[in-house]
Each structure stands twice: as C-alpha cells, then as structure tokens.
Amino acid sequence: MKKESNHILSTTGIAFRKYPYSESSSILYWISSLGCIKTLAKGARKTGKSSFAPIDLFYECELTFYVPKISDLYLLKEYQIIDPMLGLRKDWATFLCSTYFIELVVQTAEERTPIPECYTLLQKALAFIQKKPVSLKVIDRYEERLLSIHGLEGGKIEQLMGQASGGGKKLWETRKRLVDSLGL
C-alpha cells in the first residue's frame, strides 16, 4: 500500500463484483491487501469519452482512489489493468473455482480490514488454476491455507464457513457445484 496524500490511496486489487450505479457510473468491488473495498467509478459506463477502460470480473488492477471521511464507498480516481486473468474463463470448473476462492475470502473477512496474507494466497491460487486443471486437491489445499491464516490450522472448513453471513450457505452451495463440475 502506498499513501500518496492524506486522502488518496493506491493498491493492487482484483475485481469481484460490478454493479451499475447510475446511467454513467458503476460500483466495483475489489479484494486487495487493504481488504474488501468498493469503489464508485464515475463515468465508467459512458460511451465514447469514458476515462475508464472496460473492466470485468477477475481483472487485477493497480487502483488509486479517494478515501472518504465517513462513507465506505471510495471514489475511484484511476486504475491500470495489470492482468485480465483470461485463463480463469477457460472452462466452467475454473470459473466456478475462481468465484469460490474469492467468495471464501470475501465472506470470512470484514470489509475494509487489511488481509494481506489472504490476498497473497488468492493471487497465487488464481495464478495456479489459470495454468493447471482444477482438482479437489487444489480446493482442499486452498481451504487449509485459508484456515491457517484465520488461526484455525488443522480445523475443518465448516469452522471458517460458520463465520460467513448466513452460516456460509451460499458458500456451501458454490462448493457443491464446483465439486459436481469436477465429476466427483
């Protein structure tokens, strides 16, 4: 994390959600070493003169944003695409695994709480599954490392999912779809 002034921050992040905010703006959700953050990209949906390049899920970008004093919605100043991670879209299992890995971190971490170890683990896991096929071994190993980061080394994934909103029901459903897509 680099601090450029009292109210502007820069970090690297991976986009994991995107919603329209208005006719011309979008809200982008990012996971970064700073934690899970959401940014308002004013003018991002404008055609023609937009100051933002199109962005999609799983894009890894260098972000610069203004930090508000009271809101949890940051104003995106600029971003530079580092890696669009196109390999995560090569097949359904890889796409679903990417979603599961990201949501597991997002659902078990508090918003805007720095999580550098989780972010580093996520970056490595996403890079790995872009090159190698998804397997149950890869999923289990990711879950074990995430448990360890959360201080639950040797624990069961149920303990981590229990911290998620709704008891992790959505995460369990995603994990089941992922395992089913592997034919297991």
From TrEMBL:
It comes from the Bacteria. One of its GO terms (biological process) is DNA recombination. Residues 10-84 form the DNA replication/recombination mediator RecO N-terminal domain. SUPFAM superfamilies: ArfGap/RecO-like zinc finger (SSF57863), Nucleic acid-binding proteins (SSF50249). Keywords: DNA damage, DNA recombination, DNA repair. GO terms for cellular component: bacterial nucleoid. PANTHER family: DNA REPAIR PROTEIN RECO (PTHR33991). Belongs to the RecO family. This is DNA repair protein RecO. It comes from Methylacidiphilum fumariolicum (strain SolV). The gene is recO.
